[in-house]
Write a structure and sequence with these properties.
Length: 669
């Protein structure tokens, strides 16, 4: 279930219209006309200086605000009517606050750079952008922001116009802008209701408290995710919140508060939508040799709601019924065969669970406090978006000796999604057969021991964001297609570690640990790491790559066509430790990425490390490859290579090849 395509965002901050309602009225550019009730297509707008990104800026329609409940169809083909952000984007579009990156694309899940935000603030302050004959398109706006102390040396971090903003950095810039405009920001929230308040940097604390106190930023009720990036869709929520909070009178023209299911972040509804259930058990007890079935839309065959229940030798069959919203099925368990929710504690043994409904996950554990303990059972799903066992929202799943088979696309055998949780697996076989369907897809903390994990038409394992997979004595095999699957155009691989920026996984360090067992790749690179920081530990794993032309490890940026960071600045940072490990194959590190590799405890690496240019021509970083070899480990070269630095306490077999260090030193033997 790799993430769909997303691209880059230029935002308009709705608070801009509240403090300067005619922000665009006096500019030299002519804004696009609002579509009429019969028009669905928005005329192209002049790019907002960000020609390199292909962006089209939001424009106010001649300074006028549409009145009443306008029946305007938005032109964006990538904003589905059942998406959580549809109403918000529609409202902001009708108000003339935002437009797309093209006539038909909005790109809701893209991140926001510092330059893009500053340019919008600059325009909102009634400034006209001069024709740039030299320098960067945003220089004039950045100079203005520095003059007005919106960008300040006292901000607490070094402003980078081309880097994606974190949420707390965005809040500091908005706070400074509001202060410059004379808004009252004296009401501070103590943030006691947010569990991640300790993650807020000291420099941003006052700004966060003020914007939360003002009601512009709400979070999801529990978290603020200050170190994560901000998407276009989330920004649209901030626009609406800012209009309502800073100047309620700006909420005209039939505009309603945001609705839908926003990823934990800023404002918006966090309503959990789980549909209905053919059978609901809400009282504790033991239920044996019973059958539960469903053919209804958005309906579970069996739901355990807040109860402590034992299910013994039951059959659960979700044979039909469509899902009205894939995200509700992925995130909350709508249309799943068996759903445990609201703090339920469910023990399942000797069960048979079958699902042939689209978005019909097998066994679904949702929410903090919910625990599913399932053993000696069989789970089979055949439709798309239908994982075997699914854990989200902080739930817990403990599984022992299961036989899980999935056949649909985007249907991992062991699956998690937004909100993550804890998954512990022991013994059993877990097999996926569809494209884009790893054996394990982790947005959670997943531990698997003594199990067989097989993906017959997909990469075997995927970790997204600040999450983990830990494997002990498992046999893992993947066979990703070179032509099918949502990321084959980026890379073909067996294990993928990345950050999609979709909001489904917190930004942070991904961790992959594997001890014992086997790891087999039938096509592509063994490891592909992009747009994230990752820790990889391998110990005594039998690694086989059947693709002789592929890399052992590829540590690189990506095209950003799918929204995985900003092109040229979305490299990976990998800390790789091999302990008592045999490694064969070359490693590629591009110029915007870093690898810190340590060979220890009698490890043996046969291969070379290749520096490759970043395809997107990003600015090169330092310390691309740092290698440490302990006293009983060996590196056998198969070609010349370059590394930044080398600490060799062991053995290097040069085989007539050389190692060139960053300082120009050439090592050979």
């Amino acid at each position: 279930m790799l993430k769909k395509k997303t691209t880059t965002l230029l935002i308009t901050v709705a608070l801009l219209t509240s403090v300067m309602p005619a922000a665009f009225a006096d500019t030299t550019e002519q804004p696009p006309q609002m579509p009429t009730q019969s028009q669905g297509k928005q005329p192209s707008a002049k790019p907002d200086g960000a020609q390199s990104d292909g962006e089209q800026p939001p424009q106010m329609p001649n300074g006028e605000q549409p009145q009443g409940d306008m029946n305007v169809s938005i032109p964006f083909t990538d904003v589905a009517s059942d998406a959580w952000y549809y109403n918000v984007v529609s409202q902001a579009y009708v108000k003339g606050l935002i437009s797309g990156i093209s006539d038909i694309e909005f790109s809701p899940e893209s991140s926001v750079t510092g330059a893009q935000l500053i340019m919008m603030l600059y325009r909102a302050d009634d400034n006209t952008v001069s024709e740039q004959t030299s320098g960067n398109w945003y220089d004039e706006a950045v100079d203005w922001a520095k003059e007005k102390s919106i960008i300040s040396d006292n901000n607490g971090w070094t402003f980078d116009a081309n880097a994606d903003l974190t949420r707390e950095q965005m809040m500091v810039l908005l706070y400074n802008y509001l202060q410059y405009k004379g808004n009252d920001l004296s009401a501070l929230d103590d943030l006691s209701s947010y569990t991640d308040r300790s993650e807020i940097s000291a420099y941003a604390e006052n700004a966060v408290k003020a914007l939360v106190g003002k009601g512009i930023i709400e979070g999801d009720g529990e978290t603020l995710r200050p170190l994560s990036s901000l998407t276009r869709a989330e920004t649209a929520v901030i626009l609406i919140n800012a209009v309502d909070s800073v100047n309620p009178s700006a909420n005209q023209g039939g505009m309603q508060p945001p609705s839908g299911n926003m990823p934990g972040g800023f404002g918006g509804s966090d309503t959990v939508t789980q549909g209905t259930s053919a059978t609901t058990i809400s009282e504790g007890g033991t239920y044996s040799s019973t059958s539960y079935s469903s053919t209804g839309d958005d309906e579970n065959a069996l739901r355990i709601d807040g109860a402590t229940v034992t299910l013994d030798s039951v059959t659960v069959d979700k044979s039909a019924g469509s899902s009205s919203n894939t995200e509700d099925g992925d995130f909350y368990g709508q249309n799943a065969a068996l759903l445990a929710t609201n703090g339920a504690n469910v023990t399942i043994k000797n069960a048979t669970v079958n699902s042939s409904a689209q978005n019909g996950n097998g066994i679904f554990s949702y929410g903090t406090g919910t625990t599913v303990n399932v053993s000696d059972s069989t789970i089979t799903t055949t439709a798309d978006n239908s994982g075997g066992i699914q854990t989200t929202g902080g739930g817990t799943t403990n599984a022992t000796n299961l036989t899980v088979n999935t056949s649909g696309n985007s249907a991992a055998a062991i699956r998690s999604d937004r909100g993550g949780g804890t998954v512990v697996i022991g013994n059993g076989t877990y097999t996926s057969n569809g494209y884009n369907s790893p054996a394990v897809y982790s947005t959670a903390d997943v531990t698997v021991s003594n199990a067989t994990l097989t993906a017959n038409n997909s990469e075997s394992l995927v970790i997204e964001g600040k999450n983990s997979i830990k494997l002990n004595n498992c046999d893992v095999s993947g066979n990703m297609s070179s032509t099918e699957g949502s990321s084959s155009d980026e890379n073909v691989h067996n294990v993928m570690i990345y950050q999609s920026m979709s909001g489904d996984a917190e930004v942070g360090t991904s961790e992959f640990d594997m001890t014992g067992g086997s790891l087999t790749g039938n096509n592509g690179d063994m490891f592909y790491i992009t747009n994230t920081h990752s820790i990889i530990n391998l110990s005594n794993v039998d690694i086989t790559n059947k693709d002789a032309d592929a890399y052992l490890m590829r540590v690189t940026g990506n095209s950003a066509a799918r929204g995985w960071g900003k092109a040229g600045a979305n490299g990976a940072q990998v800390e790789f430790t091999a302990s008592n490990q045999t490694l064969n194959g070359d490693i590629a590190v591009d110029t915007v990425s870093t690898l810190n590799m340590t060979l220890t405890d009698s490890s043996d690496f046969t291969g070379t490390i290749n520096f490759i240019d970043n395809v997107q021509n990003g600015t090169a970083v330092d310390n691309n490859a740092v290698v440490t070899i302990d006293s009983d480990s060996t590196w056998t070269l198969t070609g010349d290579c370059t590394v930044t630095s080398l600490e060799n306490n062991g053995t290097i077999n040069f085989n007539g090849h050389t190692i060139t260090l960053a300082d120009g030193t050439v090592l050979s033997k």
